[in-house]
Amino acid sequence: MLAERIGAKKLFGFGILCTTLLTMLTPLAARTSFTALVVCRVLEGLGEGVTFPAAHALWANWAPPLERSKLISFSYGGSQIGTVIALPISGLLCQAWGWPSVFYLFGAFGLLWFVLWMSLVTDLPKDHPRISSEELHYLQKTIGDVSKMRKTAKAPWGRILMSLPVLGIATAHVCNNWGFYTLLTCLPTYMKQVLNFDLSQDGFVSALPYLVSWFVVVLAGQLADHVRNKRYLSTVAVRKIWQSIGQFIPACFLVAVGYVGCNKTLAIACLTMSVAFGGFSQSGYGVNHLDIAPAYAGTLMGLTNTLGTLSGIFAPLVVGVLTEDNPSREQWQIVFYIAAAIYSFGAIVFCLFASGVQQEWAKPHCGHGDDQQTGGHRSSINRSSESSSEDDHLS
Length: 395
Description:
By secondary structure, the protein is an all-alpha fold. 77% of the residues lie in helices and 0% in strands. The protein has helices at 2-6, 8-32, 34-49, 51-62, 68-76, 78-97, 100-120, 133-142, 146-152, 157-161, 164-185, 187-193, 203-229, 235-257, 264-277, 285-292, 297-323, 329-353, 372-394. Helix 2 runs antiparallel to helix 4. It is globular. The protein starts with a helix and ends with a helix.
């Protein structure tokens, strides 16, 4: 909501600046006390929390409908490639100058990024000093000016919360994050406890899943927009198929990890494939906020991302309860079954409720009274009629 009111550029930029400064203060906080370190990390999380909602609000102004998948997947893929770069560099820095140097170097890069961001980026295409007249005309023709609606209309929260497509996105986001955080925080522990393989000792192996994931994220985005541009598939069909690939296949590889025995190569391969195919979700639920409500994309991302963050809290807790006293292969198999089931549930709900077109409550001409009783009924009607109209158009 803040991004849509005060401008996504400022919110995104100052959010990263806040995280950057706190990153540089982390060594000092760690030397001061454990409490200071925890407070510092919590504040960093608050700064990071605005990034995805602000980015979605910004892309609503800049990403043409048939280019959303490739633009957003490429930009968000930076989180994967950043991990690939940061892991080996961090190891070298720790060996050469100690662990605090990691925070100082990446903090310095963050300050440089902030200067470039504030100097080069604008919220709206019409305000950019170096945009060509052809590009500006193209963006205005394909996107319009969603900022006008943001300033003149309040978010219709009743209809948002009763919208089945929003429910589908939120469920997919929560379930995708459960699998992601299980992979991120718990599989290294599994490999160390069960397979006696310490990923932290091999920077390449640690970075490999994220490197492959980056390629998949970018290629999946390109492919999604290609089939939409060629009208091979409707938008809603692409979102559902890509989301299914991005959650069902990682679920299968998660289960497989528990049955590879002591074969470390197969375990790493399953880990890599699970993370990699999860990249398809970026062109599934990850872009769908912009499809159904471009004017409120930042608000919707803030809502679903907040719910999705809960998975980052509870997934490691569940793993701890199941494996802390008995870190056996059988207990870890239960962990993987739970994650796979949650992955699959998210894909099923998304496929049932997702839409590929702008919802009535997100259109400028629509009255935004929060009639919750009619909101859910209307969203159901809209969802089925919108999917049918897309398929009719394609045929």
